[in-house]
Amino acid sequence: MSNSSIKDSGNRRKFETGAVRDITEGKGRCDLLPLDIVKDILFSYVDPNSSEFLKCIYDFIVDRDCVHLHVALLQFCAERDWDFFTAILQVSIHYEQGALKYGERNWEHGIPLHSYIDSGVRHYLKWKRGDDDEPHDRAVIWNLLGALWTLSHKPELDDIDNSVFIKEK
After folding, report:
1. I need a labelling partner for 137 at 20 to 30 A (CA). Which of 51, 57, 127, 157 fits?
2. Which run of H or of E encompasses 28?
3. Nearest Cα residue to 31 out of 158, 166, 153
4. Per-residue pLDDT of the chain (169 residues; tens, 9 = 90+)
């Protein structure tokens, strides 16, 4: 990895909860992608050895079963060739650098769920592409852990509309 520090534009967005993150404008909205379709193309044509990471994220968006995020995290670890303990130790460096950038435990103020999904998918795609401008592998895991923590501790910040996926019975 060329650059092991978190990129910083110097511009922040502040959430109603008081938490702050780097701006997202111009980075795209990966949480709005049709992840089931992107996954099918990735798996079928681009990288047949790819994990089911994007499918797990999509399945989570549809039914909010946290098991999908657990599986996505573990599949990413396997794809990255990290055991779980190495992954957690690596992501602890991301927490340390985030604390220096945003303040300790900033994320515990509360960040909307879509922000974690957006950033997690974007970092996954950048990692798959081979970008080395920042530690995208650590950022994938950090965002998945943030999404899981938010669902457990601040469920009111679940702001992803999945109504389009709910079929009438």
Report:
1. 157
2. none
3. 158
4. 456 666 666 666 676 777 766 656 677 887 878 888 888 898 888 887 677 899 999 999 999 999 999 999 999 999 999 999 999 999 999 999 988 888 899 899 999 999 999 999 999 999 999 999 999 999 999 999 999 999 999 999 999 988 877 654 4
Angle separating helix axes 136-153 and 67-80, nearest 10 degrees: 170
Helix (H, G, I), strand (E, B) or coil at 17: coil
Beta bridge partners of 20: 14
Burial of 138 (0-12, 13-18, 19+ CB in 10 A): buried
CA distances (Å), origin 121, targets 89, 96, 124: 21, 22, 5
Crossing angle of helices 53-63 and 67-80, in 10° steps, is 170
Mapping DSSP to helix (H, G, I), strand (E, B) and coil, where does residue 5 land?
coil
Q: Pick the closest to residue 77 from 127, 131, 152 (CA basis).
A: 127
Q: How many CA atoms lie within 13 A of 146 on its CB side?
A: 30
